[in-house]
TrEMBL record:
One of its GO terms (cellular component) is plasma membrane. The lineage of its organism: Bacteria, Pseudomonadati, Campylobacterota, Epsilonproteobacteria, Campylobacterales. PANTHER family: DIPEPTIDE TRANSPORT ATP-BINDING PROTEIN DPPD (PTHR43297:SF2), OLIGOPEPTIDE TRANSPORT ATP-BINDING PROTEIN APPD (PTHR43297). Keywords: ATP-binding, Cell membrane, Membrane, Nucleotide-binding, Transport. Coiled coil: none annotated. One of its GO terms (molecular function) is ATP binding. It is a peripheral membrane protein. This is ABC-type dipeptide/oligopeptide/nickel transport system, ATPase component. The keyword RNA-binding does not apply. It comes from Sulfurospirillum barnesii (strain ATCC 700032 / DSM 10660 / SES-3). Residues 3-253 form the ABC transporter domain. Belongs to the ABC transporter superfamily. Its main location: membrane. It comes from the Bacteria.
Amino acid sequence: MIIDVKNLSVYARSKSGGFPLVKEVNFSLHANECLGILGESGSGKSITCKAVMGLLDERFEVQGEVFFNGRDILKMSAKEKSLLRGKEMCMIIQNPMTAFNPLFSIENQLLETLSTHLHVKDNKSLLALILEAFEKMNLHEGEAILKKYPHQLSGGMLQRIMIALCIALNPSVIIADEPTTAIDVINQVEVINELKKVRELFHTAMIFISHDLSILSQISDKMMVMHQGSIVERGVAKEIIFNPKEAPTKELISTRLKLIEAFRGCVQECVC
Ligand SMILES: Nc1ncnc2c1ncn2[C@@H]1O[C@H](COP(=O)(O)OP(=O)(O)OP(=O)(O)O)[C@@H](O)[C@H]1O
C-alpha cells in the first residue's frame, strides 16, 4: 500500500473556532491503482487531496493520519514534505496559472524543479527529458515554449506543461485535480491516454478528481463520492456510475447526465 489515509478531518481555522471542511475520510491506494473522486463543487475533494500532499497551511487544522509508504506525512517536517513532493508525489492542480512563477521563464522553472528532485545537474540531459515529455503532451516546438514566460502561454498549454513536468519526474503517486478543465477536447483525450500509459509503464498510483463521468469511468478502478466533506459512497468506478446507491450520488449523476443530454440537444439543433 502506498497511501493509507485514516480518519482525515480538516477544519478551517476562524476566530469563532474551527469549521469542518473534510470529515473522517478514510481510503487507501496501491501501486498501479487509480482512485477517482466525484463530488459536487465544494464537497471537499481538493482540500482532501491538498491535505494528503501536506499542502495545507496554518489556516487549516488537519487531524488524522496520512501514511505514505508507512510514514505519516502529517508528522513530517516542512523539509521532508517538500522532498517528498515532486520526487514521490506530484499534484496537477486545476488552475495552471497559479502553478508557475510569473517572473521566470518556463525553462528556468522546469530545470529548477527537475534538478532539485532528480539530483541531476546536467541541464542538457534535463532539457532532453523535458522535450521528450513535451512531445508526449502534444507540445511541439518545445524549445520555443521553454523560452516563454507563463503569461505568454494559454491555460491549456500551461496545464499540459504541468502534466509533462509530472511525467518527467516519474513519481510514485500522481494526484490530478480536474486536470483537463483548461484543455480542449482533442488534447483531453491525449492527456488521459498519456496518464493511462504512465500508469501502465511505471505502476504509478493515481488519485483523479473530475466531474466528467466518462473520464472517471475510463481511468479509475475504484471511486469514492464526496458530499459536504464526507465520503457517502465508494466502490468500483463503473458500478457507482451506472448503478449509484446513495441519494447524493444519484442526484449528482442524474444532474450530470441531464447536462450531457441538454448539450447533445443544443448541438443537434445547431447542426440542423
Ligand atoms: N482557503 C480556504 N479557506 C476556507 N475554506 C476553504 C478554503 N478553500 C476551500 N474552502 C472551503 O472548503 C470546502 C471544500 O472545498 P474544496 O475546494 O475541497 O471543494 P471541491 O470539492 O474540490 O470543489 P470544486 O469541485 O469546485 O473544486 C468548500 O466549502 C470551500 O469553500
